[in-house]
């Protein structure tokens, strides 16, 4: 391996670790009860891949459906992105954060198995990489989604949980708001979060400056 290749490989590992650092710390804090904290200053910010969308009003989106019994997710489809991706269960790493999908499997989405199952009451968390050193990854276009669009989660019980997007935010890492990223928007609903890296790429720190957080809620089911 050349010196340049070695540096490139090392940078890739740094990007992976640092890009998830705030995200995983936020989840760890959330699991310790941070959802009782008032939302902080983590307001949306734009970046090189960010396209933040918000609904025009509550009447423009469908009503929430009754939550389902829990079932393990197997695949996630996002028709507007032409995305169909396998979902794998992920646990916590040695530092207490969610272990994301392997960096050499950029087309895979990770589900935090210690949390809510998609379709069940609460907030289910799906995470994926935005890119690799050589090509886009599974959630590269996540920031282009808009409120009213659909995310479908295929579950092990044969049901398809259909979620409607109600918010797309880009949360700056230096003002990351775990409540906003992970906490329920409305109690009693089945909600979903899709999260990846976003904002601008900070070459000095070898990481992105923000997280893209797509919020959705259950609005229907299918066979």
Walkthrough of the structure:
The protein has helices at 3-31, 178-182; strands at residues 73-78, 83-90, 109-112, 122-127, 150-155, 160-172, 190-202, 207-222. 38% of the residues are buried. The chain has an 8-stranded mixed barrel. The protein has 223 residues and is an alpha+beta fold. A hairpin with a 4-residue loop joins β1 and β2 (83-90). The radius of gyration is 17 Å and the shape is globular.
List the helices and strands and how they pair.
Elements: H1 3-31, E1 73-78, E2 83-90, E3 109-112, E4 122-127, E5 150-155, E6 160-172, H2 178-182, E7 190-202, E8 207-222
Parallel strand pairs: 2-3, 4-7
Antiparallel strand pairs: 1-2, 1-5, 3-4, 5-6, 6-8, 7-8
Distance between the termini: 50 Å
Poorly predicted runs are 1-19, 32-57
Strands of the largest sheet, in order across it? Answer: 1-2-3-4-7-8-6-5
Q: What is the CA-atom radius of gyration, in angstroms?
A: 17 Å
What is the β-strand count? 8
Structural class: alpha+beta
Order of helices and strands: HEEEEEEHEE
Figure out the total of helices. 2
- Beta-strand percentage? 25-35%
Major β-sheet profile: 8 strands, mixed, barrel
A few lines on this structure:
The chain has 223 residues and is of the alpha+beta class. It is built from two helices and eight strands, in the order αββββββαββ.
List keywords for this structure.
2 helices, 32% strand
């Amino acid at each position: 391996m050349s010196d340049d290749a070695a540096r490139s490989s090392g940078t890739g590992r740094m990007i992976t670790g640092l890009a998830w650092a705030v995200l995983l710390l936020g989840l760890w804090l959330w699991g310790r009860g941070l959802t009782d904290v008032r939302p902080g200053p983590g307001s949306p910010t734009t970046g090189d891949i960010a396209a933040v969308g918000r609904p025009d009003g509550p009447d423009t989106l469908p009503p929430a459906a009754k939550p389902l019994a829990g079932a393990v997710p197997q695949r996630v489809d996002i028709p507007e992105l032409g995305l169909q991706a396998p979902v794998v269960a992920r646990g916590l790493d040695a530092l207490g954060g969610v272990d994301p999908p392997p960096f050499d499997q950029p087309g895979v989405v990770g589900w935090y198995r210690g949390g809510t199952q998609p379709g069940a009451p609460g907030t289910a968390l799906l995470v994926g990489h935005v890119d690799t050193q050589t090509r886009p990854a599974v959630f590269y276009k996540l920031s282009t989604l808009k409120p009213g669009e659909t995310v479908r989660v295929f579950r092990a019980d044969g049901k398809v949980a259909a979620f409607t997007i109600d918010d797309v935010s880009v949360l700056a890492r230096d003002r990351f708001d775990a409540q906003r990223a992970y906490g329920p928007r409305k109690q009693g609903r089945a909600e979903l979060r899709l999260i990846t890296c976003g904002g601008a790429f900070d070459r000095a720190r070898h990481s992105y400056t923000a997280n893209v957080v797509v919020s959705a809620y259950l609005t229907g089911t299918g066979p």
